[in-house]
């Protein structure tokens, strides 16, 4: 996985797992827990706003531009304060790991970033699980790392993380490291598109227009959501879909997300509809 010494591991663990003492009733404990969590989220919001400002200007300057340091320090301090306020907060761990790993913040430490990311992922943070899964796929080429990457991606998918759903759908579609499974790929693309993921919506719509068969279980699921699935037959026992209409729904999702491909696909479908109408007349 991540290569860093056991001594660094122990140091990071000691820093992250601060002792906590509590005296009082369970209701008092719950109030204290809520108070710490609220304070931690306030620090995270401040750190995230500073990081958002860095992302806004970073494309127009060098990555190590000294003018970014005050903002990076503000983000780092607030994420650390969030962990001090609530050591169980996975969001603080994730954002602090991202800061150490991606940005030129003073005191950045890849080993600390790795430890924080693994802890956040193991504590159930879907963003951390997705990031760790991607990191393991990119940074390591051995089979063991692929299995670990798939494990964390599936954990994020279980929580319907849209990027994880899209990536896992692509893995199933191509058969990369797993047995090729079009039905599973479609399910992942469909659920990700419901979360507004433009790439997943384009992938799903494109597969529909190519004539890929949609599993009946997914059609039933779509029917419950009020999509282009329809019941047919005297007793309305059979289920079918209009692939063009469903594809259009997906392209509309992509267009709503600002994806140019979504607009292009919608334009192509509109042209095709006009062409067919002209032929009918």
Automatic annotation (TrEMBL):
<dbReference type="InterPro" id="IPR006597">
    <property type="entry name" value="Sel1-like"/>
</dbReference>
<protein>
    <submittedName>
        <fullName>Sel1 repeat protein</fullName>
    </submittedName>
</protein>
<dbReference type="InterPro" id="IPR011990">
    <property type="entry name" value="TPR-like_helical_dom_sf"/>
</dbReference>
<dbReference type="Pfam" id="PF08238">
    <property type="entry name" value="Sel1"/>
</dbReference>
